[in-house]
Structure formats: structure tokens, C-alpha cells
Amino acid sequence: MDDPGTTTVVAVPVEPPPSHWSFGSPGDFDPLDDLVAIGADLAPGTLLAAYRRGLFPMPSGTPGDPTYWFCPVRRGVLPLDAMLVSRSLRRAARDFEIRVDSAFAEVVDACADPGRDAGWIDEDIKAAYLRLHELGWAHSIEAWRDGRLAGGLYGVSIGGLFAGESMFHRVRDASKVALVGLVGLLRDEYAEDRLLDVQWRTPHLASLGVVEVTRAVYLRRLRKALELPPPAGLGG
């Protein structure tokens, strides 16, 4: 499909101080439970260490409780050559402009809207990813129409890994168009080994081509992906 126009603002990632916490060996994770750790903090070094081991954080939902860390037994990933783009989505994409990192905080705020179903992003999560963004590790992919932010997504980019965190839309198909834009950014000479992680496969994501892989397969692919340079549009 013809990609929408793209405006890119990127920063060279800055490595933060290392974490004081250890997540242990993935070989010690419960093979039947997605939840693999509880506690630690959300400092940039801790977050990066977690993603490099295949983990991601979510709040428990109860104020004051420690952070939960997940490494799903069945992981949702989107193969870059297998995204399903309908004719209607192809047509819709022509009406949007894709931008990178031009409104990161606004994207996170929209994803954290408490009025959304199954909202999980709290103030601690928002602050943590804003810090990662300032260091050049977290990015937003945005769909704009008529000069307004219509939808988008955000996630963490480390080498050849893009770990998607959340997405939103204010205009129909806008979040899907942002995902198409992200896939376009990741399709380069290293595309075969890049890893687009979406945490869990939902019916909505399955309709876009997301598949499940086992934890072992995901971790094996992650090790390979982390050896790659980041894509040019995300700090490469």
C-alpha cells in the first residue's frame, strides 16, 4: 500500500544507570503462569533490563501494590510480512499523516484515558514511559488528520525489538493506520529478524495478523533481535 506521509523526530538512545534489581533467569519462570515477578521499580534501567529479558510491567490495579511483571506463556507477535490490511484500511490510510514522537505525552495520555474499557495505565506507568521517551527508548507512532491527532500507539524500541504497549483512536481506523506506519518503519534490511511484540493476542489484534508463539520461541527471537541496530526511523 502507499504509505501515508511521515514526519519523524528521533533521539539517539541514552543508556541509563543499571538497575539494582534482578529478574532472574527465564528458565526459572513458572511455565504455566504469565506473571513471573512482583516488585522492583519503574526506573529506566529497570524497565530496559526487563524488556531485554522478555518481561513487561503492569500495575496490579490496587493503589499501593507493587508492580507486576509479565512474560506470557503464549506471546502475541506481529510478523512484519503478515499484517492483514483490508481494502478499506488501505483507503483510510490515504487520509492520514504518520508522525513519530511529535506528541508522545498526548498519545500516552489518550491510551491512559480512564473512560476506556480495561484501562490499566496509571500515573506511575505514564511517568516511567515519559522518562524512557526522554532518553530515546520509548516512541509514539501517530496518525494525524486535518492537523489533529486522530490515533496512535506507543512502545519501547531496543535494537530490533519494538514492544508495543498500548494504542488508541479518536477517528475510525486511526490506530490501525498507526500500526501500518510502524510496520513500515520496521521493514528494512533487518526486517526478517526484527520482533514486533504486542504482549497478548486478542481477537482484534488477530484480525490484523498477530499470531502466538511460545515463551521459549519468543525469548530465542528476542536474543537475536536485541543484536540488531534500531530502525532508522526510531533512533537508528
Order of strands across the widest beta sheet?
1-6-7-8-9-10-5-11
What would you call the structural class?
alpha+beta
Beta-strand segment tally: 11
Taking all Cα atoms into account, the compactness measure Rg is 17 Å
Average pLDDT taken over every residue = 92
**CATH architecture heading of the largest domain:** 3-Layer(aba) Sandwich
SSE sequence, one letter per element: EEHEEEHEHHEEEHEHEH
- Biggest β-sheet: count, sense, barrel? 8 strands, mixed
Function: Functions in the N-end rule pathway of protein degradation where it conjugates Leu, Phe and, less efficiently, Met from aminoacyl-tRNAs to the N-termini of proteins containing an N-terminal arginine or lysine.
Organism: Nocardioides koreensis
EC number: 2.3.2.6
GO molecular function: transferase activity
